[in-house]
Amino acid sequence: MAKIWVEAHGCSASFADSEMISGLILNGGHTLAQSSSDSDLNLIVTCSVKDVTAHKMIHRIKKMKTKPLVVAGCLPKAEQSTVERFSPKASLLGPNSLGKTLDVISSTLKGIKRIEITDSDVSKVGLPKVRLNSAIGIVEISSGCMSECTFCQTKLSKGELHSYRIGDIVRQVKHDVEDGCSEIWLTSTDNGCYGFDIGTNLPTLIENVSEIKHDFMIRVGMMNPMYMTRIKQDLLEAFENDKVFKFLHIPVQNGSNRILKEMKRGHTANVFRDTNDAFRKKFERFTISTDIIVGFPSESEEDFAQTINLIEETRPDVTNLSRYSARPGTDAAKMDQIDVSDVKRRSKIIFELTNKIIHERNLEWVGWRGDVLFDEIADGITKGRNFAYKPVVIDEAIKIGQKIKVEITKATKHGLYGKAIS
């Protein structure tokens, strides 16, 4: 039996995969190493969504290949040749092949390279886990997506939508909550289209999970705007439940309808605008997170101006900003690319604008009093989230999973700061 180091990068689904891989490793009789230097075998769960992320993955693969190595996650599925160029002896494990984990590890430990990147029929609900955070249960509700975005490698990695059954998901959530989790993340490649392949939808899932009779909070993960018109009204009703964080991550990507069409996003800027308005009108305080890509091929100054106008109008609480980078195998990689200097300039403008808006939105919370669920320790500081999933820090020793009343006394672009109140 071997000591195995598991390392994860990327989205919450990647971290959920790493938790399940670790659970399978322990069930298989192996142990988990405390570091890559202490291991007999290294396993890295990779992400390939951005060029800069892929470069980071390659750097880590180079560092870890001094020992038997398994490269898992999106990169080996989307860019097998890239992984093999930098680590020709590494075994490969795809994001939908977790059922082969122990077989791949066994072969790799014997010095035999094994490739398992084709999709298996193993559901990711109900597999054993080793949680990265004892307070948070990350539950994957589906794999793959229905989109055909021209800039994205995710479809290449995770394939078509495969939703897991509501009953199985509810059982997993109930197990995690009874095991001590005070926060549940419902995650997938795209939550917006959950259930369309099995005759249900995301609002129905949220309602079923909310009915579990325990004290916990639900964070609903990323959903693309293109499906919002089909589920918006039901979703507004599902979010009325006090267990659901008043938080949505809806990546608009661009404010220009022309560019959105080139991206094959399947929605217009107005869909994002209407969603933003509907949730903020219904709920007094609601957190909207979005993603913006600047410098997509053929993006003109007029297109860019429309993105600025959309951000100024909708004022997202969080904006994840990316400079466009061509990803191998995508349609957009074949298009004429924009000059790098223009992309950098536009990125700086959006960065400064969104930081200003984020700070202003956070300042609106100064003086607020209410419950905060503390769910993370980072750099020795315990951080929590209020009902709108706003990050909160107080200068007191708080246990993970604890909920206390807090008064917000200060706000920056990074979050809210406060003090405990009786």
Note the topology.
Blueprint: E1 3-8, H1 12-27, E2 31-32, E3 41-46, H2 51-64, E4 69-73, H3 74-78, H4 80-86, E5 91-93, H5 101-109, E6 115-116, E7 136-140, E8 142-143, H6 154-158, E9 162-163, H7 166-178, E10 183-187, H8 202-210, E11 217-220, H9 228-238, E12 247-249, H10 257-262, H11 269-282, E13 287-294, H12 301-314, E14 318-323, H13 340-363, E15 369-378, E16 381-385, E17 391-394, E18 403-412, E19 415-420
Parallel strand pairs: 1-2, 1-3, 3-4, 4-5, 5-6, 7-10, 10-11, 12-13, 13-14, 17-19
Antiparallel strand pairs: 8-9, 15-16, 15-18, 16-17, 18-19
Structure description:
The chain is of the alpha/beta class and 422 residues long. It has 4 domains: 3-116, 3-Layer(aba) Sandwich (Rossmann fold); 133-219 and 226-243, Transcription Regulator spoIIAA, CATH 3.30.750.210; 246-355, Transcription Regulator spoIIAA; 369-420, OB fold (Dihydrolipoamide Acetyltransferase, E2P) (Beta Barrel). Helix content is 35%, strand content 22%. It is built from 13 helices and 19 strands. It has helices at 12-27, 51-64, 74-78, 80-86, 101-109, 154-158, 166-178, 202-210, 228-238, 257-262, 269-282, 301-314, 340-363; strands at residues 3-8, 31-32, 41-46, 69-73, 91-93, 115-116, 136-140, 142-143, 162-163, 183-187, 217-220, 247-249, 287-294, 318-323, 369-378, 381-385, 391-394, 403-412, 415-420. The protein has a 6-stranded parallel sheet with strand order 2-1-3-4-5-6, sandwiched between helices. Strand 15 and strand 16 form a beta hairpin. Helix 8 (202-210) packs parallel to helix 9, helix 9 packs parallel to helix 11 (269-282) and helix 12 (301-314) packs parallel to helix 13 (340-363). The mean pLDDT is 92.
